Amino acid sequence: MPISMGFTTLTPITCKVRPTITSHNNHALDATYIKRAAELSDKSACFTSPHPNFGCVIAKTGKVVGEGYLYAQGTTPAEVQAVESGGEWCRGATAYVNMEPGDCHGDFTAVSSFIKAGITRVVVGIRHPLQHLRGKAIQTLRTEGLQVDVLGEDIRTASIEDALKSCLVVNAPLLYRSASRVPFSVLKYAMTLDGKIAASSGHASWISSKQSRSRVFELRGRSDAVIVGGNTVRKDNPRLTPRHGGDHLPMRIVMSQTLDLPEVAHLWDVREVPTIVVTQRGARRSFQKFLASKGVEVVEFDILNPKDVVDYLYDRGYLSILWECGGGLSAAAISSGVIHKVHAFVAPKIIGGKNAPSPVGELGMVEMTQALELIDVSYEQIGPDVLISGYLQPIPDLTPVIPSVDETSAIDPSLSPYDSPIIFFYKTWDLYGSFSNFSPHPIRLPDENGEHVTWSSVEHYYQAHKFVGSSNPNASSYVEAIHMAKSPEEAARMGRKIQREHPDMVMSDWDNVKTEVMYKALKCKFSSYPHLNSMLMSTVGSVLVEASPHDYFWGGGRDGEGLNYLGRLLMKLRSEFLGDDTHKAEISAGCHEA
Q: What parts of the sequence cross the membrane (predicted)?
């Protein structure tokens, strides 16, 4: 069930507005199909970590002939699925996408599928919010002779307002991240009718109904991370799991300045779900060691505050954060300006008590005129409760703040806004996202018996090979399970979990050979795909850094103190290609490409 996220007056998301508005007789039907595409794109929520949400509907003569949605980065694009399901009916049909195709890996798979299928018109909900992708697919489709209409630009009738809203809502996390350089943050709480989140004793189970708690599980499943304060850990001992049966488990984060936390807590059990504790530098070193022994990650800040924490989570690539904290931390988060939306579950109960806590602590306001007002408020009855939702900050205006690539080149052809002596890469949607192990580029390499096997990504290959050659005869079943993982994210979660829970399954000399395994996979990947090889060779003269703030082996680490082995291997590969006259033939032949 899609979650309403709200909407406010928007400036059209655009690079270049066409001088004429397309004449089309049935924009109401266009709106219906675009809304359907947005609904489809939401289907992956709760089953994979939040990512750009793509849905596609193909219609012809008033009937839907094909549909699809992106399950996760690295899986079959929504556009390809829709074309495959539509078959011959796609010829002369119209394709509807909630967001401009994001072919961020240089192969234009989604766009090509439309062209090859004979689609004649494409209706786009919003342009891609990322600067290096915005407008590229639209321009390519128009160059190929397809009619492309963008809501708010080429279609500006009142009938498309709800459809445009749906497109913005379903990708709100990406829009916030792109425009504001912060993750989308939602504050959630449950309170009684008289505004209490617990009794004076601190007892809080349960304020809201079972139906409301199920909705909270869904909210967690749509988030990259769930944040609580130390007081919540001490009093409630939460698990912070979605409990929905899906594959995605959000990171659990505890904010505590003093680390005055119990030694026994559900959150310290990281066998299924990881936990991070963020604290002030130097706090209870002995307890930090205790947490580390449990497998809990501890991150120190010079001064612990919500703004620095969300900046750090932005660097980790998170799109969406759910705050389930008490009044003190929620007030600090609101005051820091990091909360974008509020979900308040109001139960028809009265508990009273002047010392009973409220959902938001002191904000320093003394007059009602200072009160923060939510915008685009919605109301929904859930069992006996009422869910009140609204925005503290509107969905951002995505008018570019820097010149587009075309505009920059027009000023000075020798300039590029992306040139830098250091090139950072991390998430697959970044400009150099194809350098990531999670990019959707299958590789084909021989196994132990010399038979060639296709792996969906470098990450699939790397995670599985932790268990190849293991002395434990049961390890082969884990190799096959990782090989069959639907996405690179799932392969990574599976491999890390097995390694953590069953270290005896890992090959004995893994630490000595893991860089060789990675290099072998990278060489195959960049030899198999000419456009990736060209991208790698275009970085000559630049230092490549995998910008993970938490991976100190493969990445650059939080403050640049990481070993950056992934960046090093890519630079080594680049150097090998530069000095190898035969690599061009290797590329043209492919590395047994799938």
A: none
Domain housing 100: 27-170
Q: Which helix (H) or strand (E) holds 262?
A: none
Of residues 67, 79, 153, 490, which has the active-site annotation?
79
Instruction: Please state the φ and ψ torsions of residue 576, each to the nearest 5 degrees.
Output: -65, -45
- Using the CB atoms, write b or e for 243-275: b if 16+ within 10 Å: eeebbbbbbbbbbbeebebeeebebbebeebbb
Q: Is 79 a catalytic residue?
A: yes
The single-letter DSSP state of residue 195 is S
How far is CA 355 from each of CA 152, 195, 196, 352, 429, rounded to the nearest angstrom? 51, 12, 10, 9, 48
Smallest CA-to-CA distance from 446 within 468, 466, 463 is with 468
Count of alpha carbons within 13 angstroms of residue 576, beta-carbon side: 16
Q: Do 160 and 269 belong together in one domain? A: no
* Residue 355: count of CB within 10 angstroms of its CB: 9
- Give the whole-angstrom CA distance, residue 419 versus residue 270: 41
User: Residues 408-458: pLDDT tens digits?
Assistant: 444 344 434 444 478 899 988 888 999 999 998 999 999 888 889 999 999
Which pair of structure tokens corresponds to residue 478? 């884990």
Q: What is the pTM of this model?
A: 0.79
CA separation for the pair 360, 338 (Å, rounded) = 14
Pull the structure tokens for residue 268.
Answer: 């310290």
CATH of the domain at 302: 3.40.430.10
